[in-house]
Amino acid sequence: MGIRMTNIATPMPQPRAKFTNKLGLPLSGGKVYTYEPGTDIPKKTWRDVDKSVENTNPIQLDAAGEADIYGVGFYRVLVKDFFGLTIYDVEKTGIAVELDASFVIDGDKTQKQINDNQEKLNTITNKTGTTETLAESVDAAPFLQALISAMPDGMTLDLLGKTFRVKKNTGFASDYPNGDQPCLVVKDKKNIKLTNGKLIVKEHAQTAIDCIDSNGV
Fold first, then answer.
1. Cα 163–chain centre separation
2. What is the pLDDT of residue 59?
3. Is the separation of the CB atoms in 88 and 79 below 8 Å?
4. Can you say whether residue 45 is alpha, beta or left, with left for phi > 0 and alpha for psi between -120 and 50 degrees?
5. Cα-flanking dihedrals φ and ψ of residue 80, to 5°?
6. What does pTM read for this prediction?
7. Distance CA 95, CA 102 (A)
């Protein structure tokens, strides 16, 4: 299961970190110390966005008071001049990145699609009950089948400890020409799991759940 970012545009950051003294002049030969926020525990930074070259800590600024500094999350940043005098000490700085779920891909589904499926699961269980029994008229098989069919390989679907009443699946007729469909069908899937739930079978022909061309289920 691979997770990747979709192609989105972002504002261009300042190409290099630039530091000045209290007079606004370049902090030539200064040093930048990076720590975990609010501590004296050193925290790594890098010279490139791919994190292939790690910076020294402290980071030595050039004659223009600049350096290539890329970090992850929040830092305590201590900046000193050439003589070792503290220019400033910021207890917590950095960027917290919050991504819209539609920008994250898990398999062939966006995280938003996966979240929406989970939200539907929450909604149907809230409507039909959270105890050991569900209404006789409620058939959760079509809903659960839609979730299963949408699951990317390697995904685990948490059923939130709920109980679902299911009946014979009327779909997949070509796979079950004799009309002996089960309640749920896992087809063309690898290493997926349904966990933390219970099925109450109202009606089935072959079995409650059947697998077709799937493994690791």
1. 27
2. 95
3. yes
4. beta
5. -125, 155
6. 0.44
7. 20
Question: Quick one: three-class SS letters along the chain?
Answer: CCEEECCCCCCCCCCCEECECCCCCECCCCEEEEECCCCCCECCCECCCCCCCECCCCEECCCCCEECCECCCEEEEEEECCCCCEEEEEEEEECCCCCCHHHEEECCEEHHHHHHHHHHHHHHHHHHCCCCCCCCCCCCHHHHHHHHHHCCCCCEEECCCCEEEECCCCCCCCCCCCCCCCCEEEECCECCEEECCEEEECCCCCCCEEEECCECC
Asked whether 86 and 79 are in contact (CB, 8 A), the reply is yes
Per-residue pLDDT of 45-91, as tens digits, reads 999 888 899 999 999 999 999 999 988 889 999 999 988 999 999 99
Contacting residues for 49 by C-beta, under 8 A, at least 6 apart:
70
